[in-house]
Design brief:
Blueprint: E1 3-8, H1 13-26, E2 31-36, E3 48-51, H2 60-66, H3 69-75, H4 77-86, E4 91-95, E5 99-101, H5 106-114, E6 117-121, H6 130-139, E7 142-150, H7 154-164, E8 170-171, E9 176-177, H8 186-189, E10 194-195, E11 219-221, H9 246-259, H10 283-291, H11 305-314, H12 318-389
Parallel strand pairs: 1-2, 1-4, 2-3, 6-10
Antiparallel strand pairs: 4-7, 5-11, 6-7, 8-9
């Protein structure tokens, strides 16, 4: 049975419903598991849920504060996949929720079942404009929206989880494009990597020129389609009229989203949007916190107001935040050092006392040795006298 996983926040539920409906149109037996990067809202869905607390994410509150909702959805992906393998799933196909199944996925699923890790490249050939290829280099060779794993991928997933726990940002200038750039290491790290080169899978606005006719498409990726941009928020000037056969598909997808509950301007509150007093967390505050690195735990829960106040104190500059963090850490270390010095002083007094006692014992040992040597020499002298007295006369 095919196992498909995806991740959503509550505002993305209509996308997941379209994915579910089109998946079951072609694979009614498929098992869909949805990782929720949010708090449940009580809506009934006919798929299986996996909550954040079930994914094995360390320091979960810190993780949820570090990222925006847009960043968190891909950040939980390797945690979800690892948890599913640990629960006994032989193989799992991850699909971004903003995908639409257009045909049978048997060929893709067969690859997932054969390889420890299966990836789909953004581009399949060398006939693209240099500007497109350069943009892909910034985003990553492989698209993170379609990833297959099976037993044997555990070590890579563990490494990937560790990386996205801190470095899963939309910051191409700093070498990060969500979870995706880390996949570039897969050919070096994963023996038996599966690379899907069939043009019908993971078709999207960036690769239409090389993916043939719509009749051969099996899986379409509406990356960045938010119901506002005609095609994608990542390329706002892109117009539907330029999309060829995909233009009608975008119209159909928009209609399906609306039927699944999407509304213009919809953007439900996210469970991790606000400080504990209800004030909206600004993205710059998350970024500032993120610059401090993992383990910034002087405030046990980063959602507390005291963390907001401290972030305001350190200012917007990353250097200022880091300096403040290290100053605070240095103050804590200084306090601990002073405590250690006091303890060392007490131990030094005890050591001096032991040394004095040892010196006294050593003097006694030396005296005993001298006395012993003296008595030994006297005994030897007596022995020599006795030997002379008892010698027979010649």
């Amino acid at each position: 049975m095919m196992t498909v996983a995806t991740t959503v926040a509550n505002n993305f539920l209509p996308y997941a419903r379209v994915l579910r409906d089109t998946l079951r149109q072609w694979h009614p037996e498929a098992r869909l598991i949805v990782g929720l990067a949010d708090e449940p809202v009580g809506e009934s869905e006919d798929w299986e849920w996996m909550r954040l607390g079930e994914m094995g994410i360390p320091r979960l509150r810190e993780f949820c504060f570090r990222y925006t909702r847009r960043e968190m959805l891909p950040a939980v992906k390797p945690f979800l996949l690892r948890a599913l393998l640990e629960r006994g799933h032989e193989a799992v196909l991850f699909l971004d929720a903003d995908m639409m199944v257009l045909g049978p996925l048997d060929g893709l699923w067969e690859r997932v079942r054969r390889h420890p890790l299966t990836l789909t490249p953004h581009l399949l050939g060398m006939g693209n404009p240099a500007a497109v290829e350069k943009n892909i280099l910034q985003c990553g060779v492989y698209n993170g929206g379609c990833v297959g794993v099976r037993a044997g991928a555990g070590a890579f997933l563990d490494w990937w989880r560790e990386r996205v726990a801190e470095y899963c940002r939309f910051a191409t200038a700093r070498g990060m494009h969500f979870d995706q750039r880390w996949l570039d290491y897969a050919p070096s790290f994963v023996e038996g990597l599966g690379v899907v080169r069939e043009p019908g899978y993971n078709v999207a606005y960036w690769n239409l020129a090389e993916r043939g006719r719509r009749a051969g498409w099996r899986l379409f990726h509406f990356s960045g389609f938010d119901g506002v941009a005609e095609v994608t928020r990542y390329w706002p000037e892109k117009r539907r009229a330029e999309m060829g056969e995909a233009a009608e598909l975008y119209v159909e997808y928009g209609a399906r989203l609306r039927a699944a509950g999407w509304e213009p301007g919809q953007d439900r509150d996210w469970a991790f949007d606000r400080w504990e007093d209800g004030v909206l967390i600004e993205e710059c505050q998350r970024q500032r916190y993120g610059r401090l690195g993992r383990g910034t735990q002087w405030c046990a829960d980063p959602f507390r107001v005291e963390m907001r106040e401290w972030l305001a104190e350190v200012g917007a500059e990353a250097d200022g935040a880091e300096v403040a963090m290290w100053r605070r850490a240095a103050e804590e270390r200084l306090t601990k050092l002073e405590e250690a010095n006091e303890l060392l002083g007490r131990q030094q007094v005890e050591l001096d006392q032991l040394r004095n006692a040892l010196a006294g014992e050593q003097a006694r040992v030396d005296w005993l040795r001298r006395e012993s040597a003296m008595y030994e020499e006297a005994a030897r002298e007596r022995l020599r006298v006795i030997e002379r007295l008892t010698e027979p006369e010649s």
